[in-house]
Model the fold of this input.
Amino acid sequence: MEDPDNPPEVWAHKKLTYELDRFFTAGPAGFKRAARQFGIMIPDQVNAGIGSSLRTAKSSIGILYPDHFLDGDEADVEIAGARILSFAAFSGR
Done:
């Protein structure tokens, strides 16, 4: 984070914190499945879709949880001076 005394606003749908908690409590198995999804295990000679490779620290994962929430299927908010119209696109759960 650039300035810990002035953190950025982090916007998300209100259900995201539940999903993040569920993911991070899944332990190593959940992380390994997510790593496969983004091609982390593909050899360096192959573009994984996010550049040549993705490196992660072995000790920890950093995350800023949302502090502003969108509720319902759509929201019309102003973020950093821009009008944002957001629509929920859930996977069916």
Notes: The radius of gyration is 16 Å. Residues 12-87 form one domain. The longest helix spans residues 27-37. The chain is about 20% helix and 20% strand.
